[in-house]
Specification:
By secondary structure, this protein is an alpha+beta fold. The protein folds into two domains: 6-191, no CATH class; 211-346, Alpha-Beta Complex (Sulfite Oxidase, Chain A, domain 2). 44% of the residues lie in helices and 14% in strands. The protein contains nine helices and ten strands. It has helices spanning 10-38, 53-79, 92-119, 129-155, 163-183, 211-214, 233-238, 265-271, 298-301; strands spanning 224-226, 229-231, 242-249, 255-264, 280-284, 293-296, 307-312, 315-316, 326-328, 341-346. The strands form two sheets. The protein has a five-stranded mixed sheet. Strands 3, 4, 7, 8 and 9 form a five-stranded antiparallel sheet that branches.
């Protein structure tokens, strides 16, 4: 069986594969950063400045994943005639090529499908998404590197002369660009009015987990424990306050800035007789959930913009936004900006 369409030409396949590889490798590196911030190994360091650093890296992570969605079916459409080649294996490089395509296809579909479902908070599986997504990402990138090594001679050949092949590539590139523009408004503010498919990009500050879902209610007897010392809400309100424009940057890719007012964590630690710059475990009134605690590294506890926030945009925190207080720190994932805080434990 012969396939004569320009879309199936080796040069078109190689060019789309190159774009797909760039998108996946960008997504992989920024995903590793996000995973390390949330589950830091002992050697890992993440700065607190610039304040929008995580917002940028996670935005690039999701946008590069979205860009890969049109590229993947275009790549598979371009190579599917290889299923009909005979003999099935011609040489060791040919076997590596076919094996890498099989592994890459499965891993890529898993990464993109679960990533998009995670963006929409549709968890149609029983496994823990971050660990599975992280593990399969290594499989996908490994297969990409093998595939690139085998196909590099094709990628480096002369530019495409055939207009029909160029048209196929332009269409693929346009589809990927449209997908990015249609969704990038979740991270890029000036695109919000044109990103028709952007999620959680309204003017208000989004809420991923409500107080009702977390089982948290207002407690008149609430106090905050910091290194063994207790502070009432009235005492916190009497302490010197700092106001800062800081973003909530979610692992799902959306981000939104707000004006936060509260007590710097460094001042709280000093008032409790502890030393700023020590790592602190933040505890929430939420009784269940994977993110009811978080750890603030010393880089953040010494930063004057790491706040125990009491107000948002000049108003007392809404219960869904973490009343009576929550952590807001620069360059941190939203899941680590713990709400309904009741204890800061110095580690």
């Amino acid at each position: 069986m012969r396939f004569r369409s320009a879309a199936h030409h080796e040069k078109a396949t190689s060019r789309i594969g190159l774009w797909l590889g760039i998108a996946f490798l960008t997504c992989f590196v920024t995903g590793l950063i996000s995973h390390a911030i949330q589950h830091p190994p002992s050697w890992f360091f993440w700065p607190s400045r610039p304040v929008n650093l995580y917002r940028v890296t996670q935005g690039v992570h999701v946008i590069s994943g979205v860009a890969a969605i049109p590229l993947l079916p275009a790549k598979l459409w371009s190579v599917y005639p290889k299923l009909f080649e005979r003999p099935l294996v011609k040489s060791v490089p040919h076997a590596l090529e076919r094996g890498s395509i099989l592994v890459l296809s499965g891993a890529a579909f898993f990464e993109l499908a679960t990533g998009i479902l995670n963006v929409g908070q549709n968890y149609l599986w029983s496994f823990y998404f971050p660990d599975a997504h992280h593990a399969v990402a290594w499989v996908a990138v490994g297969s990409i590197l093998v595939h690139i090594a085998v196909k590099l001679p094709s990628v480096r050949r002369d530019p495409l002369p055939d207009p029909s092949r160029r048209a196929f590539l332009r269409t693929t590139w346009l589809a990927s660009g449209v997908a990015v523009v249609a969704t990038a408004g979740v991270t890029v503010p000036f695109l919000r009015d044109v990103s028709l498919l952007a999620w959680r990009s309204g003017r208000g500050l989004p809420v991923n987990r409500t107080a009702a879902a977390a089982g948290v209610t207002r407690d008149p007897s609430w106090t905050l424990e910091v290194a063994g010392k207790h502070f009432t809400l009235a005492q916190l309100n009497m302490m010197p306050q700092t106001t800062a424009e800081l973003p909530i940057a979610c692992v799902e890719g959306w981000s939104q800035s707000a004006s936060w007012t509260g007590v710097p964590v460094a001042d709280l630690l000093t008032a409790a007789g502890a030393r700023p710059g020590e790592a602190v475990r933040v505890h929430s009134m939420e009784r269940e959930g994977l993110y009811r605690t978080s750890t603030l590294p010393g880089e953040h506890t010494s930063d004057p913009l790491t706040l125990l926030a009491l107000r948002c945009d000049g108003e007392v925190l809404d219960l869904d936004h973490g009343y009576p207080c929550r952590i807001i720190a620069p360059s941190r994932p939203g899941v680590s900006q713990t709400k309904w805080v009741n204890r800061l434990e110095v580690l």
